[in-house]
Amino acid sequence: MSLLKRIEQGSAQQQPAVPAAPAGGGASAASAAPPVSPTAGTARIGGLSTRRVSAPGGDQRDPYHGLKSRVQNKLLAELDPSMDVSQTAEVRRTIEELFETILAEEKIVLSRPERRRLFEQIVAEILGLGPIEPLLADDSITEIMVNGARNIYIERRGKITREPAAFESDDHLMRIIDRIVSPLGRRIDEASPYVDARLPDGSRVNAVIPPISLVGPTLTIRKFARNPITVDQLIEYGTITAEAIEFLKAAVIAKINMVISGGTGSGKTTLLNVLSQYIPPDERIITIENAAELQLRQEHVVTLESRPPNIEGRGEVTIQNLVVNSLRMRPDRIIVGEIRDEAALDMLQAMNTGHDGSMTTAHSNSPRDTLARIETMTLMAGMDLPVRAIREQIASALELVVHLERLRDGSRKVTHIAEIQGMEGDVITMTDIFIFEQTGFEQGRVIGRLRPTGLRPRFMDKIEASGLHLPASIFGVGERMRY
């Protein structure tokens, strides 16, 4: 039996349950002082983390982490401070050589798999984000959720499961959070106990620490897809049908204004990204997002990103600021990643003033709720407009609502494609063109299909004026359409 197996068995027999940190004491410890362990010493090598670490509770309480900390600290002491950390492969080779030397000097006997495991964990600590580094490298994982040091959950194919990996302590987790936000000029402490950030690969990060979080530091990462989902994959996954995609493709080409709605994690941005590929390449597109996620393939694209205030509370650039500024940039289309505040009014005005074919997303529970939320967000602008005037703006600007839901089996599906037809009295009228019909629930899967209602939208004349002809088959009967 190798040393690593022996110490892990000893750790399993001796390791007591880790108590949850009390809300009061945990909050004070996590925020009143820098997020390091009491025995830690800190240095930086051009972005390389050279923080000395100690196992929680000492080596005898946690032998495996004691071994890991001992090797890691000795390795950090040997690293050359002049190393160029941008040369990842070269730095990794250097670390591996030092790692092997230290194991030989310490006479530590490990099997090949154990040696590799220890090395990868130490590299993840020095160059990456600790125990979540391999999760970030796994393309099948879409979301990583850390609820305190010991609880890591992932979302894979719509299902949330718990991971066996864990941080050594809340201090360890705080160091990783600090490593994420510090290069961005952001801070997280008792005065600012939550923060939004973005990893270099585009993944969105949210962190919350005590005293706001009572379970210890929390970290949520929505991963940025290296290879964007294609329309064929959406059809294969059952998110949407080929007929509905053909209809939406024609709507995009014909410059129909649309909003894609749904709950958190329902696939709104993914669908927006897919539909954006149908915008003709000769159009100038301005995209506006809180965190850049859209991956448009056209050449004439300008990407704008909002900016939070700095530590002094200055320099904020909002979505509303960017929407107003984009009107001076000669856009053919404006795509707003998500409207969530008074920027809704500026978006509606842009759609009503010659920027047809603009698109955005919104959080809501249904197509009708989408219009109610846009109405509420428009009122937030403080323009003191009558409700009827706002509804007329909405009915005039928006023509199509595409609604998605994340169903109980974890699947994401388009459940409604609805046309906004106008006003009747004080009410905005809508008609479903496609609607998802659930027929059952078998073996943990939702059974159903997005079916056409048999109704043709009133904006069909705009589609036909664009040189596109949708046969009746798209709406339920006849042959498939041809371009």
Describe the structure.
This protein has about 475 residues and is α/β, with parallel strands linked by helices. It has three domains: about 70-75 and about 85-125, no CATH class; about 130-225, Beta-Lactamase; about 230-475, P-loop containing nucleotide triphosphate hydrolases (Rossmann fold, 3-Layer(aba) Sandwich). Helix content is about 35%, strand content about 20%. It contains 15 helices and 17 strands. It has helices spanning about 5-15, 25-30, 65-80, 90-105, 110-125, 135, 170-180, 230-235, 240-255, 270-275, 320-325, 345-350, 365-380, 385-395, 460-465, and strands at about 45, 50, 140-145, 150-155, 160-165, 195-200, 205-210, 220, 260, 285-290, 300-305, 335, 360-365, 400-405, 410-425, 425-440, 445-450. The strands form three sheets. It has a nine-stranded mixed sheet with strand order 11-10-12-13-9-14-15-16-17, with helices on both faces. A six-stranded antiparallel sheet has the order 5-4-3-8-7-6, covered by helices on one side. The protein has a two-stranded antiparallel ribbon with strand order 1-2. Helix 3 (about 65-80) crosses helix 5 (about 110-125), helix 12 packs across helix 13 (about 365-380) and helix 13 packs across helix 14. It is elongated. Residues about 1-50, about 55-60 and about 480-483 have low confidence and may be disordered.
How many helices in DSSP terms? 15
Distance between the termini: 68 Å
CATH class of the largest domain: Alpha Beta
CATH fold title of the largest domain: Rossmann fold
Strand order of the largest sheet: 11-10-12-13-9-14-15-16-17
Could you tell me the mean pLDDT?
Answer: 82
Helix content: 25-40%
Strand-pairing-aware structural class: alpha/beta
Per CATH, which architecture of the largest domain? 3-Layer(aba) Sandwich
- Basic shape: elongated
Low-confidence stretches: 1-48, 54-61, 479-483
Q: β content, as a range? A: 15-25%
Overall structural domain count: 3
Biggest pleated sheet: 9 strands, mixed
From the alpha-carbon coordinates, what is the Rg to the nearest angstrom?
27 Å
* CATH superfamily annotation of the largest domain: P-loop containing nucleotide triphosphate hydrolases
How many strands appear in the DSSP assignment?
A: 17
